[in-house]
Amino acid sequence: MEESAATYDPTHYQRPSVTVDVVIFTLINQELHVLLVQRRHWPFEGYWAIPGGFINMDESLVESARRELAEETGVRDVYLEQLYTFGEVGRDPRSRVISVAYIALISADAQKIRASDESTDVRWFPVSGLPEQLAFDHDQILAYAISRLRSKLEYTTLAFQLLPELFSILELKHIYEQILGEELDKGNFYRKIKESGLLEETQLTREGRGRPTRLWRFRRDRAGEKQFVFRWREDRLSR
Amino acid sequence: MEESAATYDPTHYQRPSVTVDVVIFTLINQELHVLLVQRRHWPFEGYWAIPGGFINMDESLVESARRELAEETGVRDVYLEQLYTFGEVGRDPRSRVISVAYIALISADAQKIRASDESTDVRWFPVSGLPEQLAFDHDQILAYAISRLRSKLEYTTLAFQLLPELFSILELKHIYEQILGEELDKGNFYRKIKESGLLEETQLTREGRGRPTRLWRFRRDRAGEKQFVFRWREDRLSR
DNA sequence: AAAATAGTGTCTTTCAGACATTATAAT
DNA sequence: ATTATAATGTCTGAAAGACACTATTTT
Predict the structure, then answer these.
(1) Fewer CB near the terminus (10 Å): N or C of chain A?
(2) Where on strand C do bases come within 7 A of a protein Cβ?
(3) Locate the Nudix hydrolase domain: which residues (chains A, B) (predicted)?
(4) Contacts of residue B13 in chain A, CB cutoff 8 Å?
(5) Are residues B185 and B108 in the same domain?
């Protein structure tokens, strides 16, 4: 009750620990990946876990998340969004831990990313091939992060955060397919994305095996202006 | 970093306090109301605040929210949803407080609700007539709760939580209008809600001044089955 | 010329929105 | 009959979906 808060004496109450966990997504070879770290000690020794750590008393939650992100990947200035706060009693065997989970999207060309595939204890996993069982309740956190990413994709410009500065429309389509887990019609995709006015055409092209592809840039100025609704098939919402 | 968590010694870290705040919505006279409590002590003495309190070490976050809710209103078995976690450094002048905010929807016929309009320190406010300035960052929390309620209304069956067991379709429409803050077309509303298959017709009617109105029941069994998308006008999403 | 990839055009269906009409009660 | 409220019907325009077609490159 609010009354008890007003007469609050800090020494009276036991306090839980508070951590921030960051589910870090990126695209590697056009495929959606997540960064996981392997635990070295009890509990869940050897298990893969979502990177995270305790908050400092002088930093806000987002600041904590940014710090974790920088420590794990060396990347700054990325899209960060609070996902959910997990606070079941037994979720950490050591003590009562409340964990505020964040989602981070790293653009594909921010590949100054430290954590590499080679490293034994920090690694990018494709979402299609995750480890069987993660530490703590991290399976649950990760599953929720992925489902949130899917649904937000439909009514935000979030997918662009994952792309490099320049990209082709078919690459963008590919990301949507990756995350939604379903094929999209090429023509309809072209139509809709162009009508949106979110893309700026460049004079650049990229060569391939067939016809070269035109490169586009995301118009960040227009992003906030008008919410972009990318709703391909209503029934997808039911998943 | 995860490594530091593994070697964690509880005495090393200072811990913040964790509270749960519950934004409680209900319908009174067909209008959306929120429950607020008036603070008796420093800080923010005399200001209205969202009810909440410290979590206990042996209860999960939702359990804390349910307890607060029961303490404040005496109501059980309601819809509860986690809203957001607020953790700015200076949000509580007494100490570092992380607050996990929840939304509660109380059905209109659960009016065994204790807190009454008469009471001086606990009161229902219509969302159209809230106090000017709330305690702490509660303005922000409340604004966010209302906006979340609005947007969730469009793709969930959430509005039904606010209604009594039996209701007319026009009452339902009225709730949508209340929460969305805009008029809806009667015919289109009838069409859409009936197509959804979410309502079960009863043989009951209610008398009024004109033609009596048919009463319906919400089909909770179908609620999960198929996500209900109630999207009236796309441009509303931009708010 | 064939294969490969990029990009456009068009027809159909679906559905939201607007609005007119009918139904059933009280006065 | 008039008023009041409830409920249904219908027309239209916009946009999603399906799919055929054209364009530009390499081999």
Answers:
(1) C
(2) 3-10, 15-20, 23-26
(3) 15-150
(4) 17, 54
(5) no
Q: B132 and B32, same structural domain?
A: yes
Chain B residues inside the 8 Å CB shell of A39: 2, 6
CA distance A119 to A132: 19
- Positive or negative torsion for Cα B159, B164, B169, B172: negative
- Determine, yes or no, domain membership for B119: yes
Q: How many other C-beta atoms lie within 10 A of the C-beta of residue A212?
A: 12
CB contact under 8 A, B16 and A14: no
Kindly state whether residues A55 and A169 are assigned to the same domain.
no
Could you tell me which of A97, A69, A60 has the C-alpha nearest to residue B6?
A97
Alpha helices in chain B (DSSP H): 2-6, 61-73, 138-153, 169-180, 186-196, 220-225
How many CB pairs below 8 Å do chains A and B form together? 133
Give the closest nucleotide to A209 (alpha carbon vs C1'): D26
Number of folded domains in chain B?
2
Q: Beta carbon of B194 within 7 Å of strand D?
A: yes
Q: Count the residues in chain B.
A: 239
| Whether residue B129 sits in one domain with residue B19 | yes
Q: What angle do CA B85, B90, B91 make, to 5 degrees?
A: 45
pLDDT tens, chain B, 239 aa long: 444 444 445 556 789 999 999 999 998 888 889 999 998 888 899 999 999 999 999 999 999 999 999 888 888 888 899 999 999 999 999 999 999 999 999 987 665 566 545 456 888 999 989 999 999 999 999 999 998 988 887 777 888 889 999 999 999 999 999 888 889 999 999 999 999 889 999 999 999 899 999 999 998 776 655 556 665 544 433 32
Closest among B171, B174, B181, B179 to B217, alpha carbons compared: B171
Q: Answer yes or no: do A11 and A94 share one domain.
A: yes
One domain, residues A71 and A45: yes
Residue A206: CATH number of its domain = 1.10.10.10
Q: How far is B135 from chain A (nearest CA, A)?
A: 11
One domain, residues B168 and B221: yes
Q: Going by C-beta distance under 8 Å and a sequence separation of 6 or more, which residues neighbour residue A227?
A: A155, A156, B237, B238
Give which of B1, B2, B72 to mutate to test A binding, by max A Cβ within 10 Å. B2
- How far A59 CA lies from chain B's nearest CA (Å)? 6
Q: Which domain holds residue A164?
A: 158-238
CA A152 from chain center: how many Å? 11
